[in-house]
Amino acid sequence: MKLSAPLAALLTLVVATACAPQSSSNSASDRDEKTGTLRVWLFQEVGNEPKKKVVDTVVAAFRTAHKDTKVDVEYIPVETRAQRVKAAFNDPASAPDVIEYGNTDTAGYVHDGGLLDVTREFSAWSEAKNTDSTARQSVTVAGKVYGAPFYVGVRALYYRTDVFRELGLKPPKSMTELATTARTIRAAKPDLYGLVVGGAYTYGAMPFIWANGGDLATGKGGSYASALDSAAARTGIKAYTALFSDANCPAAKCAGMGGNDTVTAFAAGKAGMAIGGDFSHAAVEAGKVKGRYAVVPLPGVASGSIAPAFAGGNNIGVLKSTTHRTLAVDLMERLASKKTQSALFDAMGFLPTFTDVRDRAAARQPFVKPFVTTLASGTKFVPVSPAWSQIDSSLVLPTMFQEVISGKKSVDAAAKDAAAKMNDVFGSAG
Questions:
Q1: Where are the beta strands (DSSP E) in 221-367?
Q2: Predicted model pTM
Q3: Which helix (H) or strand (E) holds 16?
Q4: For the segment 304-325, what is each residue's pLDDT rounded down to a tens digit?
């Protein structure tokens, strides 16, 4: 199954396919040491132990193949990745060799000169031919490849089957029903959030903007202008921020929450519903609600429709400053391999980026269905611009949501100010 056409249309970058020897002069370092210690930064997940076990297996095999090497793996918080990675780009001596990074960060990291061009190695890698075309585009900038796709991720609606059964509720089929159902749960069970939401949960909020006909920005070819202050986008912002109330998810507790916080709350049995990813499955399974939840696509505005989801996912790349190019690329390919992606699906629920591996996973595990359905119904992406990583790291959208939630600004004023900030960054990025 391939990712949806809307995302493919947004990501117009082309992947280079020329084969070449596995060596290159594009590294900032002229050293390619075959021994020593490789440093790896991977993202810390909610319930990270299953991921760590898979990675430990990969590292053990790598060290068996390369006797005189060591691998130091550090798991870093997703929320602080921008600061950590920027510091690494500026200080090669303390930088990792291999990193996990979000697909929204590719253009920005390449613009900053931090990622190694691995076009030649990727083209020569036998497994790459089965990479989903859109996932392949997520590691591509201006025809060059800067990593290997690691997993694809979309979000859907998790809900408590026991709570719904007790209250005689059915999964909501529209965003209006979603809000009504959330308030019904909260009223009947004040100890629960109806739908747990987060003021810092950017990717959970985006579907509300898109479902209402809005967008983050307009443009193409790297030239964008913010669309947050359009009437449609403001309608979506209002729909999302209205969920922060004592009747659902009190602002005092929920305004500062990020995506991991909302998943943690749901897994702990503190919410009737949550917007979580396929990658959240392992954490929910390990929580108190195991056996008492189900997942459906997040509903759109029209009854029976599906809200456009952010087509996310992560990649594995090599930093340009590495002094272990050959070893680092080998470890990148092992971490992003079919075998590893299959194991990570079993351990964490991460959707593989290889079409053949994903098809086998979907046939094996029914929980994948709502996420695959969401992918097929139409997904959206962030502006493919180096400006996005700065917009994201400077918290433009969370600040906007939190200003509305706190009552500091109206939706119109907060959206106008956020749009102006975005346009400043778009302009400075060229």
A1: 223-226, 271-277, 293-296, 309-310, 312-318
A2: 0.77
A3: none
A4: 999 999 988 999 999 999 999 9
